[in-house]
Amino acid sequence: MSKFVLDVRGEQCPVPVIKTRKALEEHGECCEFTILVGDDNAAQNVQRMAKNRGYEAEIAADAEGKLSVHITGQEGIAPEQPLQEAETVCALPVAKNGVVVAIGSGTMGAGDDELGRLLIKGFIYALSQQETLPQTLLFYNGGAHLTCEGSPALDDIRSLADQGTEVLTCGTCLDFYGIKEKLAVGQVTNMYAIAEKMLQASHVVKP
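^ thats the sequence. predicted structure below, dont judge the formating
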């Protein structure tokens, strides 16, 4: 099997994921891949995308601490086809048709910020009590604070995650606000994945 090296160091999110995905689509059945990345965020995003598409993917660091992602196919799996997510046993059913809730602020509505913070907390609590839950929660820009330590909505977001809702927070946003280490629920994601989730959703709800 031939080896394919892709250097995406210095590229900004979501370029590393997009370039890796294109390489997998073009050469996935015949190559082992080494993706050279510039930081941990890019490494995790590339690894997650590759695994979601049926590959084995491991993050490695050399003696100088430079990061790379090593990707290989799995026998019996068509690498270009995404794997189906394992069924999750939930207390409440997750939306079958892929409802995505996109939260881009720590407040809800325009006007008084204190009221807006109360409203977004109440909205997330109300989501957790629905008979049918959203498939995915996306948090970006100011909304990234809601998935971090100290968030008044953290318990309700954890409740949704425990019941099977996917919780994703923009890594660029976490870095911008300096709160990446405070992420307390869900996973870090990138703008390519956020766009993909929205485009593939049956409905996108933006409170």
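The two ends are 49 Å apart (CA to CA).
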